[in-house]
Amino acid sequence: MIGFVACECLIYDAQSLKEKRAVLQRIITRLKQKYNISVAEIDHQNVWQRTTLGIVAITASRAATEQELQRALALIDSFPELERTVTTFEWF
């Protein structure tokens, strides 16, 4: 089962693209190290305080895929400098 999550996030303290990239790089690196997922910034690359992350997980069952994606979202929520707003799930 393939699960895809697009989550839009706000980074309030970023005053430049460089600061935004530093925050995102730390989050993306931690997600990739901790979970069996792929992560990338998929929208709003040239906006300071806004981003959309795409997260994909592939496992044998939908339950395992959903559990992995929920853990990844919980890790994103644990970062105080980032607020997750709109989150959409797709299944393939």
Written overview of the protein:
There is one protein chain. The protein has 92 residues and is an alpha+beta fold. It has one domain (1-89): TT1725-like (Alpha-Beta Plaits, 2-Layer Sandwich), CATH 3.30.70. 37% of the residues lie in helices and 36% in strands. It is built from two helices and four strands; from the N terminus they run βαββαβ. It has helices at residues 17-34, 62-77, and strands spanning 2-10, 38-43, 50-58, 83-91. Strands 2-3-1-4 form a four-stranded antiparallel beta sheet. The chain is elongated, with a radius of gyration of 13 Å. The protein starts with a strand and ends with a strand.
Strand content: 35-45%
Stretches where pLDDT is under 50 for at least 5 consecutive residues are none
Can you list the strand order of the major beta sheet? 2-3-1-4
Overall mean confidence score, pLDDT: 95
Rg from alpha-carbon coordinates: 13 Å
**Main pleated sheet:** 4 strands, antiparallel
Fraction of residues in helix: 25-40%
User: What characteristic shape results from the CA principal axes?
Assistant: elongated
Q: What is the name of the CATH architecture? A: 2-Layer Sandwich
By CATH, the superfamily comes out as TT1725-like
Number of domains: 1
What is the succession of H and E elements? EHEEHE
- Supply the CATH class: Alpha Beta
CATH topology: Alpha-Beta Plaits
Task: Report a brief summary of the structure.
The protein is of the alpha+beta class. It has helices at residues 17-34, 62-77; strands at residues 2-10, 38-43, 50-58, 83-91. The protein starts with a strand and ends with a strand.
